[in-house]
């Protein structure tokens, strides 16, 4: 799922590189040149940036105090949302693991070492929850009475084929 680019992304780029073409802004943000143009106009209208003509072909974007305030506000909102999602995932992991432990299941983590793995392992360690960790689906055959926790949807079909009980720790409801 691709994240939606908004004014804060443009403000972030402009803060780091005030003398930048709209084409370069388009490349860095991953949105069309037309969308960049609209966002720049929106930022100017809202008072987030000022445009200074350096010559006939080059402009300098200046972040205003209001633009800095908006960028800070959006960054804080992003941090709060991320923190809430981590807390939500933490609670989900604890609830699921308690259920599976009460069913005498061995919890097996299957996935690459990424941020999600780090969150799950930290939750397990802080709550003294035992688990096993594997990187390859072939290693599952060495376990009995297991529940596999994963988060990469590409693995789901393989787990179904092997008739292994699993839960997508991100997408499945508790």
Automatic annotation (TrEMBL):
Keywords: DNA-binding. One of its GO terms (molecular function) is DNA binding. Pfam families: HTH_24 (PF13412). InterPro entries: WH-like_DNA-bd_sf (IPR036388), WH_DNA-bd_sf (IPR036390). The keyword Nucleotide-binding does not apply. SUPFAM superfamilies: Winged helix' DNA-binding domain. This is Winged helix-turn-helix DNA-binding protein.
